[in-house]
């Protein structure tokens, strides 16, 4: 589904993000990227959503080089990708309902679909009572659950969760992991980055270890449904 | 789908406008200042034009004819002058009208009237007053009558004097004054318009700068550039619309007060002018407000869309 072919990234300030990375992520896989801060995990996930482009090498999505995508093709690609960030990146000026509705509107969904699906997904992440709350009125765990709800509302092909538990306590961490497992069970490819060993142990998935921008370990399991 | 998207964009823009009352108020205030400057410049230019027209109207060339000049010859000259493209109007005052006007002017001056009566007959010749389309054209009209032209030669017997030489200095000064006022007015309009547009653009840019992270997130959840930008553009248009409303209402008392306090210095009633031109000024200022708001937002949002 996604292939990194000899991918390197050097930032304008000379810092190396990733170096000679070769990796293949298969459809339906749950892949956990682990490594210390600055190992290049986030940079690697940013290549998938084309938020960053590699300085060298190619990133293929369904065998098509992402760098050849036009702006409108990138927009379409991003509708197939759900992203959850450590810092949530919710739309602060919109309510929980509107945050999710926005993602659906952006994907061209009808008003009827939005009215029927948004309450349903909010119920799924146990936020039905917070529908009209703004992100500033939600706790860290609630914000992350809202971010997950937004990421999955358009039934993406792949869900990228970049340190989704980084700002959460253990109870909320367990809940987020549970939700991610459920999403993967339904057939969505999940790429999770973490530097938390507890999180890694909680998910019996394929683990790719990164250090200083390089892949130093990969216990590949072709398609692992947990 | 287009109408659904348009409805969503407008709704989102309106919601943003309502939810950030402080930012919206500041932007509307700055836009109001911009539109006020533009409206004031409209009125300033209207006053200037009216003053120039009234000054120009006070200038003419008077050609005085000899007492025995035949009326047919004077009328023939009037006819010839009327056909000159630079000439706006030619007014003929007959000898009889001249003497009546003189008697009117000196109705209380018994001695002068007695002297006129003692002269017997009409000591006045007829005259024509020529107005040019532009005050800069008097010189060429006068040279046609005074110089070596065919018209001058044909009429030299009947023309007693032309008052252009006496008025020349006044006309020249007036010309340079009008020219200066036009250029100065144009330059002031241009400079103030540019300054206010820059201030407005900067304000809108600041409001969008505050939303730069949201713009990035919107792009990452799959919104197209135009869908992200749309609500900002509509919000910019709302700043323009509200500022327009405030400006239009504000200028009613402003023009009233200006007319009352310095109305005698300017040759038009600004309040009446504003009220009678409310539709045309309002339409232009609304168009400027909406366009400036939309373009400022469009350009400001563009910076943060490259995600």
Overview features:
heterodimer, A: 226 residues, alpha/beta, 4-stranded antiparallel beta sheet, 26% strand, disordered C terminus, B: 307 residues, Alpha-Beta Plaits, 2 domains, elongated
In words, what does this structure look like?
The complex is a heterodimer of chains A (226) and B (307). Residues 221-226 of chain A have low confidence and may be disordered. Chain A is of the alpha/beta class. Chain A has a domain at 1-80 and 189-226: P-loop containing nucleotide triphosphate hydrolases (Rossmann fold, 3-Layer(aba) Sandwich). Chain A has seven helices and ten strands. In chain A, helix 6 links the parallel strand 7 and strand 8 (189-194). In chain B, strands 2-3-1-4 form a four-stranded antiparallel beta sheet. Chain B is elongated. The two termini of chain B are 25 Å apart. In chain B, 29% of the residues are buried.
Strand content of chain B: 5-15%
Number of strands of chain A: 10
Describe the main β-sheet of chain B briefly: 4 strands, antiparallel
Quaternary organization: heterodimer
* CATH topology title of one domain in chain A: Rossmann fold
Q: What do the pLDDT scores of chain B average to?
A: 86
Q: How many domains of chain B, as an integer? A: 2
Which strand order do you get reading across the main beta sheet of chain A? 6-7-8-3-9-10
Tally the helices of chain B: what do you get? Answer: 12
Short account of what is shown:
The complex is a heterodimer of chains A (226) and B (307). By secondary structure, chain A is of the alpha/beta class. Chain A is 34% helix and 26% strand.
């Amino acid at each position: 589904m996604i292939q990194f072919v000899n991918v390197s990234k050097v930032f304008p300030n000379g810092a190396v993000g990733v170096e000679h990375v070769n990796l293949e992520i298969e459809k339906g896989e749950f892949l956990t990227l682990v490594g210390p801060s600055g190992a290049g995990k986030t940079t690697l996930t940013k290549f998938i959503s084309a938020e960053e482009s590699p300085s060298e090498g190619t990133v293929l999505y369904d065998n098509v080089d992402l760098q050849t995508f036009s702006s409108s093709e990138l927009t379409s690609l991003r509708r197939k990708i759900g992203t959850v960030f450590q810092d949530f990146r919710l739309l602060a000026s919109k309510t929980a309902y509107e945050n999710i509705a926005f993602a659906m509107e952006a994907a061209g969904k009808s008003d009827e679909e939005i009215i029927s699906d948004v309450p349903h997904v909010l119920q799924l992440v146990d936020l039905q009572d917070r529908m009209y709350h703004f992100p500033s009125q939600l706790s860290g765990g609630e914000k992350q659950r809202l971010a997950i709800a937004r990421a999955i509302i358009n039934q993406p092909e792949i869900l990228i969760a970049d340190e989704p538990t980084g700002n959460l306590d253990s109870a909320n961490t367990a809940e987020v992991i549970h939700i991610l497992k459920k999403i993967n069970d339904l057939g969505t490819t999940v790429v999770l980055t973490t530097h938390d060993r507890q999180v890694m142990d909680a998910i019996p998935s394929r683990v790719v270890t990164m250090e200083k921008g390089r892949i130093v370990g990969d216990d590949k399991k072709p398609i692992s449904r947990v | 789908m287009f109408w659904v998207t348009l409805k969503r964009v407008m709704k989102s823009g309106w919601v943003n406008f309502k939810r950030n009352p402080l930012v919206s108020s500041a932007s509307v205030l700055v836009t109001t200042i911009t539109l006020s400057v533009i409206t004031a410049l409209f009125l300033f230019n209207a006053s200037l034009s009216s003053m120039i027209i009234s000054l120009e109207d006070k200038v003419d060339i008077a050609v005085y004819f000899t007492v025995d000049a035949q009326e047919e010859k004077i009328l023939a000259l009037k006819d010839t002058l009327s056909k000159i493209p630079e000439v706006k109007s030619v007014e003929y005052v007959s000898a009889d009208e001249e003497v009546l006007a003189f008697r009117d002017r000196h109705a209380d001056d018994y001695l002068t009237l007695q002297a006129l009566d003692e002269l017997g007959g009409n000591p006045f010749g007829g005259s024509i007053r020529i107005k040019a389309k532009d005050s800069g054209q008097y010189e060429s009209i006068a040279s046609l009558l005074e110089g070596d032209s065919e018209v001058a030669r044909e009429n030299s017997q009947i023309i007693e004097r032309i008052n252009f030489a006496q008025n020349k200095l006044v006309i020249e000064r007036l010309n340079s004054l009008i020219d200066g006022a036009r250029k100065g007015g144009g330059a002031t309009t241009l400079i103030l318009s540019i300054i206010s547009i820059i201030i407005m653009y900067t304000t809108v840019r600041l409001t969008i700068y505050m939303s730069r992270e949201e713009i990035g997130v919107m792009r990452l959840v799959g919104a197209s550039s135009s869908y992200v930008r749309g609500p900002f553009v509509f919000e910019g248009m709302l700043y323009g619309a509200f500022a327009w409303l405030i400006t239009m209402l504000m200028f009613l008392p402003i023009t009233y007060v200006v007319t009352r306090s310095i109305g005698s210095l300017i040759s038009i009633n600004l309040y009446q002018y504003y009220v009678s031109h409310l539709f045309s000024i309002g339409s232009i200022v609304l168009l400027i407000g909406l366009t400036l708001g939309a373009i400022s937002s469009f350009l400001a949002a563009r910076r943060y869309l490259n995600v």
